[in-house]
């Protein structure tokens, strides 16, 4: 692949703004496992090898079982996820595939488990990883 633009070097203020979202998300009470499940699943859908590599490593450091990582793209057929995690994963998929819209059923299922503040934090996590995926894929970042 040809060398592509480096956002950090060419647009440091834009990168700084993205890091501001990361700083905000780090300050929230979002469960670290929830964060990594969101990041991995959105990155799988988007095909971002760089982010999948990064966040599966982060998930393992948190103690997330390998089996739960390996089966994440088939979470509906696996019994290794809590009902709360399933609600997060469904919402992650629908926000990531936004052209299909977020269904009322998926949204209401998430509301069953999370208060408005936590739900807003989940949504912001999903939005942020999707932005990072698009930056990494467009600029040709590679897993190492």
Structure overview:
The protein is an all-alpha fold and 144 residues long. The chain has one domain: Up-down Bundle (AhpD-like), CATH 1.20.1290. 69% of the residues lie in helices and 0% in strands. It is built from eight helices and no strands. It has helices at residues 7-10, 12-26, 32-46, 49-61, 66-70, 83-96, 104-113, 116-139. The longest helix has 24 residues, at 116-139. The chain is globular and about 45 Å long. It starts with 6 loop residues before the first helix and ends in a 5-residue tail after the last helix.
Descriptors for this entry?
144 residues; mainly alpha; AhpD-like; 69% helix; globular
What would CATH call the homologous superfamily? AhpD-like
In CATH's first tier, which class applies?
Mainly Alpha
By DSSP, the count of extended strands is 0
Structural class: mainly alpha
CATH architecture: Up-down Bundle
Helix content: 55-70%
Number of domains: 1
Overall average residue pLDDT: 96
SS element count, helices: 8
